[in-house]
What we know:
Blueprint: H1 13-23, E1 34-38, H2 45-55, E2 61-65, H3 74-85, H4 98-108, H5 118-134, H6 136-151, H7 165-171, H8 179-190, H9 197-208, H10 213-238, E3 246-251, H11 256-276, E4 282-288, H12 316-321, E5 334-338, H13 344-353, H14 362-369, H15 373-388, H16 393-397, E6 403-404, E7 414-415, H17 416-424, H18 430-439, H19 445-450, H20 459-471, E8 475-476, E9 506-507, H21 509-520, H22 530-542, H23 548-560, H24 564-577, H25 581-592, H26 612-623, H27 625-630, H28 632-645, H29 659-670, H30 677-685
Parallel strand pairs: 1-4, 1-5, 2-3, 3-4
Antiparallel strand pairs: 6-7, 8-9
Helix pairs in contact: 3-7, 3-10, 3-11, 4-8, 4-9, 4-10, 5-9, 8-9, 10-11, 13-14, 14-15, 17-21, 18-20, 22-23, 23-24, 23-25, 24-25, 24-28, 25-28, 26-28, 28-29, 29-30
Amino acid sequence: MLPMPEERPQGVNGVVRLFSECRARAPGGRELPVVALLGRRGGGKTTTLRWLGYLASNRPNAFYDFASAPAKRPHEVATRLALGLSYRFPRQPPVQFPRLALGLLVTRLQLSLDDADTRKARAELKRGLRQARSSPEAREAVGEAGEVLGVLQDLNLVPLPGINLVLRLVQFSLPRLPVTMMWRAGLTWYGDTPHRTVDALVALNQLAKSDEPEKKAQVDRQLCGAFLEDLRAHDARHGQSLDKVCVALLDNIDVPQGREFLDLLVRIRDANAAADGVHDPLLVVATAANARAVPGPYAPGLPAELRVRPPEQASYADWERSIPRPASTTRWHWYPVLLRDLTEPEIMVLAEQLAPPPVHTTPLVHRLSYGHPWSARTLLDAVYAIVERGGGAPELRQVLRTLTSVPGPPEVPRTVDEAARRYLLRDLSPSQQSALVACSAARAFESAVDAGLLEAYDQHTKDSLHRDIDALLWLIPPVPEDAGTRGGRGSGYLEYCREENRPPSTLQPWLRLVLLQALAAQPAGDRASWESAHQTLRAWHQGREGARRHRLDAQYHSLALNELDGTVAYLHDRFTDLPTTDQWLYELYTITAAPMRVPVVPLGPDEPQSSPSDRVRELAGQLGPTSLTENWSLTMLVTALWLAADPRNRVANAAPELNSTIAAMFHRLAALPSSSAAGLLREAGRYEPRP
């Protein structure tokens, strides 16, 4: 039974609702899914799983983390789950596992069985079972079981000296079981074969002594089958008094042992349902950070081409409708649910649960982290430290360079962005991490691959990077570029101007931001430098200028290379060439979404801090002196939108600092004779304060 978690996860109400629907016991039983909670590293999977364990703590439940324990065979995992599920609750019939316990005893008995003399083999097996049931060790386990079960909350930490403590803890129930249950339930189930019962147990004992993979798999199959059969028998015996099914919470099933156990469990479920139509009352909720570790219906265009549901759309009815009739594979058992990033209000609640910084910093944390839970916590800690020591806007703009207390070697202090890269990319090889830094220059990840940014890397990196980044759930649909991403109001209202039907996938904005920090720090001559990456991408897009997307991306990379004059000249021509204001705004926002190598100029302790409008004027004069003279309003607008697109320039407050400059420039453009005033004035209004 899991204790009350220190933190209540945010954004998982849909998961909790799905959990409650599936956990409710239906008269006569029903099929249950294997709910797979998918989420990128740091996405709150374990926190969510532990919260579900807390919600289920008044009924039989068990937690197992495949990543925190040495590799276990499937039947050993089933044994640990049985231990957790056998915890006794008031006014609840205890779940007993006579079939599993008997099978474990048989496999552990040190017998010298002679296949040639079946009579002697049976006699020795029966003598071994009697000794196991009446041994002082078993009686001692009976007396100590309650105390041990209360201490062992994390089953993965149980030491297993000698005879195997888990076996003893399951074994303690054997003397308490009625003799009829022990022999009729346990022995009868193993004897449900063409052979007699004792012959089947002799065969199981012999299989357990073998190191051959096929024979070990047979042992796992039989013991896991016994585990599920005990659950079915418990439900059949006490169904009238039960309102909830048993729950198994499995963390980090990405490791091979996780899938090995669940694949076997699903196969046994299929076989049982085909044989008698009865379903076991066990709800499995698992977590994975790699979508390739989870089978499911094929869905092109989604992560790892796996059909997933967001929490708000997930339900038992939705899973049930997805089951093919007839089902040709076992994939239908799985129900992948993709945990989402947090909203700004949810980060505010998270901030209140932690050491609460001033409320006005919450929008900054959300804009930087894009709601990634681990990153939001890390940034909240960093922001709180800045505010606590009296820091203001200059320090908040440098929050990614703030030293953080994220766990790591104490002799290597890390900034927030360094700690984030170290943690978020830990599933990739050093070569893949280096290549990903170069690829962060591209707006769409596919463009980086197609443009040849990976050619300087080894073959494995070239072949695997896109696949692994997709499977690790770091590729998402692009965020609409409009006023909403610049501190104004409204999002998605220009998407109808997009020519392509399906926009290419992009790196999650927070991960891309910390990668761009690393890219900007690369020396100019490095193979993954800022200049070389953006020049390569621009040249590739220019070679494909037939499509508007490539033409805009070429301008995007030119602006990233600080070529402000060329960008303003292009947008000036398009101002009169395009038929509608919305189409021009779409191009304006698309181009000014370009990353900025030095978005925030670090200042010395005695240097005055420039106002946001001064910063716009300084940058425009530095990078586009010709444009500033010839097209002052448009140059100031482009520069202001470019700065505002980078969250490192956005200090959190009620009125983003660049909004007044952006609104003023839209008003000036609307006054030009060749403009479409109505559309530009409407856009200016998105940046003006409202009561």
